[in-house]
Amino acid sequence: MRKFYLLPCWLLSAPLWAATPEFELVIRDHLFFPSTLEVPAGVKVRLMVDNQDETPEEFESYELNREKVIPGNSRTAIFIGPLKPGEYPFFGEFYPKTAQGRVIAK
Amino acid sequence: MRWPLPLSRSVAAVLVTLVSLHSHADGLVVDKVYHPYVDALETEIEWRSVFQDEQRNFVNPAQVHKFSVGHSVGERNFVELYLTGEKNRASGFRTQAWEIEIKHQLTEQGEYAADWGLLVEYENALHSDMREFKLGLLTEREFGAWSGAANLFLINEWGEDIDAEIETALSLQARYRYRREFEPALEFYAGQETLALGPVLQGDLSLGPRKTLHWESGVVFGLDNDSAGTTWRLLFEYEF
């Protein structure tokens, strides 16, 4: 039998269930609140994004390697990190001129 | 087996898998590497092409062109319809098949050690009785600025004009996220009469809010005598 079953093993070679710190990010009037979010470096964190606008928004950040649509009046979890210390910009793809922010990992 | 596996043993496991993968698959092995993500509210128009050298023990088309239109359904599914055409060495270009493909995102990006998705595909030849059903397991994991992706396919072919068989195929990609417009990558493909490795460049060009042109271009080289010596691949995808 071919050893296909071994393929996923390397991808599971890290703990699956570690405590994940959670941070809140609100979208209102096509703006992010807070626009600067401090998170701990070196650990995975969960951003709970609460879109309070009627319209959808897309959280996008090449630096964080994330792209996620949040429908209007809904909450979505976005997992980021573990991050090296530094600054990581993000923006809303539907309203890029106003919806801008940054994550600072310390 | 201890769990989780140490990384060195995990890499060794992948190598064992690759060596044992020289399977009996028909069709196009060098295609593209899928990522297990779906972007909600997105429509895509895609054109991708493969240009390949003649193979020693296998009649492969000189060129394969795929045109597709796709749209996300909900937050976790993406449905894409394809029209495929081929240019053989002895004849000109002709349309070859239609295809429907559904990608399902299984896990949230970054939530677990790796991200997972499924690909289901049905292909029907236009001028002969050949059908294909493909089930793919898609996975991806970040390693800092690097992303590693793997696609494992189980393929069933049947019809009056083809020998019914079950096939396997594997594709791997290691991609360096240098900048959005330009990312170098290394890709590996294994399938019938094909064991190939080569560099690929890709990127996203922003054309405005929610409008992106994604491109991929690469050349992979056969690693044994049965594989096509050189295969070029090209992809353009307009996302809006």
What descriptive keywords fit this protein?
heterodimer, A: 106 residues, mainly beta, Immunoglobulin-like, five-stranded mixed beta sheet, four-stranded mixed beta sheet, 48% strand, globular, B: 240 residues, Porin, 1 helix, disordered N terminus
The stretches of 5 or more residues of chain B where confidence is low (pLDDT under 50) are 1-9, 14-25
Low-confidence stretches of chain A: none
Q: Which series of helices and strands of chain A comes N to C? A: EEEEEEEEE
What is the oligomer described by this structure? heterodimer
Reading the helices and strands of chain B in chain order gives: HEEEEEEEEEEEE
Q: How would you describe the shape of chain A?
A: globular
Overall pLDDT score of chain A? 88
Major sheet size, sense and barrel closure of chain B: 12 strands, antiparallel, barrel
The whole-angstrom Rg of chain B is 18 Å
Q: Name the structural class of chain B.
A: mainly beta
Terminal residue distance of chain B:
46 Å
Strand tally of chain B: 12
- Tell me the greatest interface: A-B, 34 and 42 residues
Give the % helix of chain B.
under 10%
Task: Give an overview of the whole structure.
Chain A has strands spanning about 20-30, 30-35, 35-40, 45-50, 55-60, 65-70, 75-80, 85-90, 100-105. By secondary structure, chain A is an all-beta fold. Chain A has one domain (about 20-105): Cupredoxins -  blue copper proteins (Immunoglobulin-like). In chain A, the strands form two sheets. Chain A has a five-stranded mixed β-sheet with strand order 3-9-8-5-6, with no helix packed on it. A four-stranded mixed β-sheet of chain A has the order 2-1-4-7, with no helix packed on it. Chain A is globular. The relative contact order of chain A is 0.25. The longest helix of chain B has 13 residues, at about 5-20. Chain B has a single domain (about 30-240), classed as monomeric porin ompg (Porin). Chain B is mostly beta strands and about 240 residues long. Chain B is globular, with a radius of gyration of 18 Å. Chain B has one helix at about 5-20; strands spanning about 45-50, 65-75, 75-85, 95-105, 115-125, 130-145, 145-160, 165-175, 185-190, 195-210, 210-220, 230-240. In chain B, about 5% of the residues lie in helices and about 60% in strands. Chain B has a twelve-stranded antiparallel beta barrel. Chain B contains one helix and twelve strands, in the order H-E-E-E-E-E-E-E-E-E-E-E-E. Classes of the chains: A mainly beta (about 110), B mainly beta (about 240). Chains A and B meet through strand 6 and strand 7 of A and helix 1, strand 6 and strand 7 of B.
